[in-house]
Known about the structure:
4 copies of one chain form a homotetramer. Helix content of chain A is about 45%, strand content about 15%. With about 325 residues, chain A is α/β, with parallel strands linked by helices. Chain A is elongated. Chains in contact: A-B, A-C, B-D, C-D. The interface of A and C includes residues 25, 139, 152, 163 and 190 of A. Chains A, B, C, D: GO terms for molecular function: 6-phosphofructokinase activity; AMP binding; ATP binding; fructose-6-phosphate binding; identical protein binding; metal ion binding; monosaccharide binding. Chains A, B, C, D: Pathway: Carbohydrate degradation; glycolysis; D-glyceraldehyde 3-phosphate and glycerone phosphate from D-glucose: step 3/4. Chains A, B, C, D: Its EC number is 2.7.1.11.
Amino acid sequence: MSNKISKIGVFTSGGDAPGMNAAIRAVVRACTYYKTECVGIMRGYEGMIEGDFEQLDARWVGNILQRGGTVLKSARSKEFRTPEGRLKALGKLRSEGIDSLIAIGGDGTFTGLHKFHQEFGIPSICIPGTIDNDLSGTDYTIGYDTATNTAVEAIDKIRDTALSHNRLFFIEVMGRHSGYIAINSGIAGGAAAIVIPEETMSFEELYKILGEGEETSKKSNLVVVAEGSKIGDAHTLAKKVAERSSYFDIKVTVLGHLQRGGAPTYFDRVLASRMGIAAVEGLLNGKSDVMVGIKDNKIVYNNFDIIMQNHHEIDEESMRIAKILSI
Amino acid sequence: MSNKISKIGVFTSGGDAPGMNAAIRAVVRACTYYKTECVGIMRGYEGMIEGDFEQLDARWVGNILQRGGTVLKSARSKEFRTPEGRLKALGKLRSEGIDSLIAIGGDGTFTGLHKFHQEFGIPSICIPGTIDNDLSGTDYTIGYDTATNTAVEAIDKIRDTALSHNRLFFIEVMGRHSGYIAINSGIAGGAAAIVIPEETMSFEELYKILGEGEETSKKSNLVVVAEGSKIGDAHTLAKKVAERSSYFDIKVTVLGHLQRGGAPTYFDRVLASRMGIAAVEGLLNGKSDVMVGIKDNKIVYNNFDIIMQNHHEIDEESMRIAKILSI
Amino acid sequence: MSNKISKIGVFTSGGDAPGMNAAIRAVVRACTYYKTECVGIMRGYEGMIEGDFEQLDARWVGNILQRGGTVLKSARSKEFRTPEGRLKALGKLRSEGIDSLIAIGGDGTFTGLHKFHQEFGIPSICIPGTIDNDLSGTDYTIGYDTATNTAVEAIDKIRDTALSHNRLFFIEVMGRHSGYIAINSGIAGGAAAIVIPEETMSFEELYKILGEGEETSKKSNLVVVAEGSKIGDAHTLAKKVAERSSYFDIKVTVLGHLQRGGAPTYFDRVLASRMGIAAVEGLLNGKSDVMVGIKDNKIVYNNFDIIMQNHHEIDEESMRIAKILSI
Amino acid sequence: MSNKISKIGVFTSGGDAPGMNAAIRAVVRACTYYKTECVGIMRGYEGMIEGDFEQLDARWVGNILQRGGTVLKSARSKEFRTPEGRLKALGKLRSEGIDSLIAIGGDGTFTGLHKFHQEFGIPSICIPGTIDNDLSGTDYTIGYDTATNTAVEAIDKIRDTALSHNRLFFIEVMGRHSGYIAINSGIAGGAAAIVIPEETMSFEELYKILGEGEETSKKSNLVVVAEGSKIGDAHTLAKKVAERSSYFDIKVTVLGHLQRGGAPTYFDRVLASRMGIAAVEGLLNGKSDVMVGIKDNKIVYNNFDIIMQNHHEIDEESMRIAKILSI
Lengths: 327, 327, 327, 327
């Protein structure tokens, strides 16, 4: 099969994540190594439709390994959701001679590529690049390690001021459908309580944890809240606690988009490098309609269908750990 | 006069700032050097009223130089605003044999100490510790350098994602009455526009700056907004721009309390060390009712009255620089 | 079995590693959770012999989670290698009522505890705390993730200056018997070549890689060298290259002990927390003479014998990756 | 005079320093603001002789503000020291239409430009970019603030391990002729002793300071040594102490080139921005053969002659401070 692949198009799509550039670089260098051409598609599906392409070589990806964001840029594309949009994209790819695709992004990105693959059969592989770590089929997504460290560094700074004032802080971290960043930055940040989308803790239970702190004269508290919390975001929870008790001097910080940026950690750079190479090798070996993943530190390829139908669960062990530590 | 001072009480009050611990350490070590006793008053005026004291020596302040926050803690005290509260505090100080005071904090802290000094004549010196750099009588306050760097590091991360998506970001930094953090983190962060309390830029003018970016196809923009902005905070400004134009994909990040924490920069540690020593030496040399400051890299002592009646202006040069750079 | 364990002694020994404090905290909190007493043994085996003990509780381990180093301190002990020394240590433990031990450290630490256990049968569990990641029986040791990131951050800074001057840099990282830090910081830092103790690359082969760079007019090069390199340390290699060719402007940086310090990453904090809890639970469940490890993200317990007889190999995949990327 | 300047050539030379890119960006943006052309001369005098020029505009300097190193690169040039070399350079500048020069670098850079100016009269201004802060005529040079913070962060990490082991560390920082980085990173890092080129402390005096630590059972010590130390570098001093006493467990770390890299601090970015603009405005206002400086937070222009004949002294106050704090 491998003789079919001679020009790979690579693009990033969806929210950016630290390590995407390391993945792009690895794709390009693997192409050079395997004497395959590589074309960068700018701004995701939008650039595919417009034919916004860049010839990529080792020089083009020089000195990007350590940078946050994505040099190929990212954008949302409404047009690609229409059959006409996808046909236009196909035309541009054919004109350019691109015969296979590597997408770096999250589940929205994958859904689009899966559809495109079903319609036109172009060999396609996805690389999971999203800080949320919410994709099944891989233990880690690119950007998650960096984002969690960014959250922990912010929590460390907030703890300085929390301890100086005996305050209660609600800190909101990213994770609309996934509590990965929250649970691990919460454990690493010494949170008194952690609120995640996956868990069924009620507000009463949360309040009781804080109240227990009060009784035991534990004076400083940090509560880490995933943005997808089912019992209210950080501002809402802070308001509800304030209404119940005047004991606490409460502050809220929403970390927001700074979690997406920054130089990637070694872990994300190495993960991205491995996945970038694996994506190229996968295409050359005839794989398609799959996502590269890492399981128990080994590269795996999973069908899109399977990835899309499952959620990356948080193990109960993490929640148990959090509970013991916050005693 | 110096023979009167034999036991100095030191405390932190108001919002904490990185470098306060370095100042405390310097006060203690200077006391040791000058063979003067030093007592820590916990939780500011609150601890003074309660007699919450700690004997301080070199060991107690070991390994705190690099830590954010304040090991003496800080709190607000309503009671100290009453004559009864202040009398109670005086009693506790006398019982402990404390004959002079060093306060580390901002203008609220100084106002309290000034009143206390007027009533009871206890020798008192203030050290400016606040991230806002909003005190006249000193070129720099302790914590400002660190907080501005923290803001810039956050802006750098947000720029990664802004550039990847061609987005417009409104980033709110601290500074209720002062634009110091905003103007300097804005220049250093490459902001397209900077909104500060001191300036009279209207929303129309701001919008025009962003619009010019649109015309010239400059695709990414960061706007840094001081929390004390007169034309609306970051969320408000973002909303107003969104109502006017659908051109921009707008996001908002409020940096909040993480600007208060973190290990202080070398500048804040050295500044705090110099000021801590200068406060002790000032008391021993008979100075009182003054704030230690730094002017043109030299230690100065200014009367409280003068400090309180003036504002630390932002020089027009900074605004001019910002304008040239954002071209 | 669990009724035998009522007072656990915990200590750190050997070189310190970031995350040791998080492990100590987790041991103490798990003891509180399981209503077991916990005593800190200061300065490793040295403090055990001297009876230098501290009663540990949640307050004692407050605010240490994020700190590098070890609050229990570490030291080498010649005396513990003698039968008399170990007998003395046993006596002190008995006087204090300590009936079980948790050691945090590397293979030297484990060897001592293994012998102690063989002689006196005291229930003992080890936690792997060493930046080198050189222990079999666990995928990761505490401190390795942080140390590798510290190395990468340093490499990033050196790359700035290397690129500005077209220089060749030899950067020496820790790892006397293990190339883990070197291979992963090398991949993440974009090294042209990586020299590790496990590999059999000759100086000629290394020189050829650099020379190829020369031919292809690649002007900047970073070579990462593990301190345990079999073909010479960074200074030696730099000298040998300089003798062979005047083409390169060569500089050397030995990162040294700064790799041991710093606030631990989220990964090391969570790993240390899990292992600390697992060590306590292991003892309470009757395990002894084992090391806690993590394999495929699950806690495992391995016998000391097995740990000591094996080396933690670097997988060939990593070396393959490094080769493809440095093309 | 200003009508003479229509095309400015800008270059970096000598050792790189963080903030150089911010200065380049400011020069380019000021040129745009004042409608003057700007040409980048690559690799300093070497590129000037070769005619290695780049047309610079706002786009070219986009997203470089936060990067260490210099995008214009730097190199040493033997040829520029010869009259023939300088004549060649002049020819290339004339062909390109460059009528004035801005150099960013240290004293070596300035000496070359001063000579060039004397010979050919081309309007020339220098911007002080060197981490050593060793230039008279300015309170701060670009890169010094960042380098000192980098040194302090490294010292903080080493302190973690020093405290865990009761060790004595000798840490060597940059500064061949100047103790600025050493004295300020030493104060900020809590050093027991600081060895700088400017001071006359003998080895005996240094040893006595450490010995006093021994007597007073202060168990951990950091000694910061500037590379230009007159009594031996860090390795030499460590060896001499070890020969004298077996009391200390001594380690050495030479920070080296990592001090040159990294994202510049806000201070260096703002300083570089101000100086870049001031250099352009200076040329346009007819100034020449001067160095831009900052004195008491105001821009100044000093003649090269004056700069070259003086040394930037360390004030005695700093040494006094260091002594009081290390008590």
